[in-house]
Each structure stands twice: as C-alpha cells, then as structure tokens.
Amino acid sequence: MEALQGIANGFSVALTGTNILVCFLGCLFGTIVGVLPGLGPVGAMALLIPSTFALGPTSAMIMLSGIFYGAMYGGSTTSILLNVPGEAASVVTAIEGHKMARKGRAGAALTVSAVGSFIAGTFGVVALMFFAPFLAIFALAFGAPEYFALALLGLIFLSQLGGGSPVKSYLMVGFGLLLGTIGTDLMSGMTRFTFGNVELSQGIELVPVAMGLYGVGEILLIAERITGIPQIIKVKLRELFPTAMEWKRSIPPMFRGGFVGFIMGLIPGPAAILSTFLSYAVEKRISKRPEEFGKGAIEGVAGPESANNAATAGSMVPLLALGIPFAPPTAMLMGALTIHGVQPGPLFMRQCPDIFWGVIASMYIGNAVLLILNLPLVSVFASIMRIPQHLLTGIILVLCLVGSYSINNSLLDVYILISMGLLGYTLRKLKFDMAPLILGLVLGPLIEKNFRQALFMARGDVWVILNRPIATTLLAAGLAVILFSTFLRRRRAKV
Amino acid sequence: MAKGIHRICYTLFLVAGILYLIGSLMLPMGTIEAPRSGLFPLLVAIFIVAMSLFPLKSSFKEVEVSGEQIEPFPKGLDRNRVLAIAAVLFLFAFCLKPFGYLISTICLMAVIVRLMGLKSWIKVALAGIITGVISFYLFAFILEVPLPRGEIFP
User: Fold this and answer.
1) Which pLDDT belongs to residue A202?
2) What's the structural domain count of chain A?
C-alpha cells in the first residue's frame, strides 16, 4: 500500500514539465551514448553531471538515470546493424542480432530488442518499486558494522565476479580507496596526503576521475586507429514488424530475461553485462532449436536485451534503499546526489520521498519514451555512427575538460582528469578493470567512517562486531565468494 | 613481453603502496578503541603492498599467471598520435590560466581534429573556431559555468 501511495506521489513529481523534459533528454542522450562505441553510460553521466547544476536533485537524478537505462536501449542498435556493440552489455546481442540482420531480419531484431527492453525495463521498475521500500525498512536495523560489512562485500563481489584477474581488480580497489583518503578526514578535520595543497584538501572528486578513466581514456584508445565511416545496414519502417512466429519465440525469453536481469542487478558487480551472458546461456539451454544459436536465433536477442534493462532497475535497489552503489553507473548517481547536497542512506526513502519515488516513476515514463524513440528513429540513431571520428573525439574531449573544470572551478580537476585519462588508457591496455577503482573511490570514505565508528562502538573489541548476525552473515558471504571463485579458477586452470 | 610489462606495472604499484604506507605512518594512528586518521590509510597501504607483491612474485616464475594477457601498445605513427594528444591536453590545461577558455579551446580543437586525420587546414580552423565559440556560448551563457578568463587575453 505504501508503495502505491509512494508511486502516486512519484508520478506527481515526474509528470511536471521540467521533469518530463529532463527524462526525455536523459533517454535521448543515453540512446546516443549507447549507439556510440566507446563512451559508455558512466562517462556520459560524468560528462552531464555539471549540466545538472542548474536543476534540482530530483530532476538531476531523473536525467542521469535516463542516461543509464537509455544506454541499454541504444547499445543494441549498432550491435545488430553493424556488429559493433555500442555498450559492453550489448556484446551478446551482436552474436544473434547481426546474424539476423544479415539474413534480412534486422528490423525484427531491432523491434524485439526494443520491446523486450521495454517489457523487462518496466518489470524491473515494478520490482524495484516493491522491493526497494522493503529493503529500506530492513536497512533501518543496520548500524556501522553492517554498513562496513555491506560496502566491503560489494567490493569483494565486484573484484571476484568482474571477469578479469581478481588480483588486478583488488589492486584497483586499493588504488580507489587510496584516492578516497586524500583530503580532509571528516571525522577529525585533519588533512591527509594533500602536500599543503589547499585545493586537494577538498578531496579527489569522482567526476574528473570517472571522466578521465572512461572518457579521455577511451578517446586515447580510439585515437590509436583512425577509421573511416562504417557501412550501416538500412532498415525501412515496414521491415520493423516481426512475424507471428518471431513474436511467439520472443515473448517468453523477454520475461525470463527480465527476471534474470533484475536478480543479477541486485548482486554487486557488472550486473548488466553478466545478466546478458546468463540470459543467453539460459535461452540456449532450454531452446527447442539450440542448433539455431550462433546463426541468428531471435531468443538470443530477446533474452539478453531484456536482461540488461531489468538489471539497471535491479542495480538501483541497493542505491535507493541502502545508499550503497554496487556498480559504477549507480556510483555516479550517488556522486551526483552528493554534489546536490543529498546524502543517500537507509533514511533516504523517508527523508527524500520526492527523489526516491520521483526517480522510480520517471523510469516508467522513460521506458515508454525509449520505446517510442528507438523504433521509428532507429535509422537516425544508427546514422550517428556517420559523424566523422575527428569531430566526435574533439567534442567529447572539450566536454570532458569543461565538465571537470566546472565542478569546483579548479584547474587541479583538469589535471586530475588528464592524468586519469592516461592512467585509464594504460591500465586498459594491461587488462585492468576500471570499475573497482571507481567503486573504491566512492565506497572508501563510507567504509572508513563505518569501520572507525564500529570500532568506537565496540570499544576496540572485534568480537562485538562479529556477534552481530547481519554483519557476520555479510562478511561470511564475502569470504565464501572469495573461496568459491578461487576454487573454481584453480579447477578451471587444471582442466 | 606481457610478463615484463606486468612486472614493471606491479613494481610501480608496490612503490606507490610503500610510499603511501610511509605517508600513513606519519599520521596519528590512535588506538583500536579510538582509531584516528592514520589507521585506515595504513590498512589500505598494507593491502596494496600485499596485492602487488603476490603477482610480482608470480611474474618471476616460468609459468604465465592467468589473467596476464595484455593488449599491445601502438607503434610508429599511431603511438605518436596518442602521445601527441596526451601532450596537447596537458598543454591546454597549462594555457587555460594565461590565455583563457576561448583561445585555448579553439587551438585544442584545431590540433585534435588535425591529429585525428582532418587534412584541410580551412576545415581544421573552422572546426576549432565553431566548437570553441559554440561551447563558450553554451557553457558561459546558457549553463552559466564560470569559465577561466585568462590573464593575457581576458
């Protein structure tokens, strides 16, 4: 009942002129970012945070969330038409989607992808609407030890399940935590690692770091190879309608993908990407025509595309209910909230109901906007790929530079942006994942604050912390994930 | 090749971890009942040192450890282009204070599009001027972002 009252309030917030406009702009920009290979939703959100300064926190969150889930829609377009995934979560879509396009079924693949995204995205928002308030009430029982354990669990999950080398991910976590300790210690007021620099005493901002790693770093990678304008498969409006058989084969995978995606979204880590692989594997296993997979099976488009959209809604749950982001895009949302003077946490739903329910309601509107935008305008979005590379790289660089400067009107942030860009470029070459660094930077101050408060509370007795059932369960889950994935890796190495 | 590059990389992480460790030791630690500013950085520093020592040790073994693949760095003109763009970005940041946003951005955009392969000098100049002026108008007047004004050319 509370959820229904809340969502009614949310719609009254989301349906104002300004919020409808920012929702539309967020979805539009998200789709464009999804289409363009390289700059993902994290870089795009970092890029647009400065432009939200003139807006209130609710409108800012609505716009930035629109970019997050809008990118999932856009990512499928280039995967299907060009075999170039615009976004990491659309890699799986390219496997079957592009094969369908080469058979002349590009329109059907695009429609199934957009409708699946809409159905699963909406399903995800419904689940978010009921699940987040429940979790937020549960989170009221959380104290410092529980928050410390939960944030630590998030970092462990991300490092272990990220797909790359866990040691590299842990190093990135460590580096993120290191950056998070630079500046003024909020508990004692003492400055740390600032070397007398007054600007550094404010700490390292998330925006220049994320823009550098995901924006400038990506541009440097693109600059390695100058490519021409790609050939895009053209799709006419009348070709967009799937056949009755294609619909019949697509609908069940959409729902299964939605369920898999939402559950994966709740788990810390790169949920959107992992959910697509899991959904693809599920569809392939239960399909009556497994031999068609790899040759253009429509289930392989419907399932993963639905999964990545539902995962975005799922990943919003820990942020909105607990105030803890478990993935880089939600870390950016938390960063934006902090910049707007709002501190997410377990009381967020009660203290800021307009933001909490307004964002959820805007996601219903955003999903409908994206469906309307993506189907008839698919050729327009695909033609974004025709923008010359030199112009696009230059414009993105200018936006990154101005964006990082505008946060604090500080040249130091510009230098941090460029340094992070170089670091991101180099580390990507060495196959380091950037997500743990971002999450380490965001969660570091939270972990430190709760760690120190927990020790204060327990008067230094660690057993007092371990006697709290929720904290112990979370820490045990972290340990189990480390042991289990180490065991799996060793077994795989032996085979 | 990959092993050598990784060895350098982990050594750099190790050095950074040790320097951070030394820095954290200079901060007040407090006690376990009442930890102060130095304790958390100390734990993070120990974590970084441990995490860089583990793969560093493995890199001296014969067998390549899993997850140690790398993407080759570019060579020749491609490498020079990446380095030039990085240098131009630093130069831009350096020039912002004396020359201000507009002139620095026009020059930056022109150099970037040229480096990225645009041949015609007229188009290069146009790309620089149009991007510089539009972005200046957008940020300074519409979004009201206070852009650097410049000491030599305000």
Assistant:
1) 87
2) 1
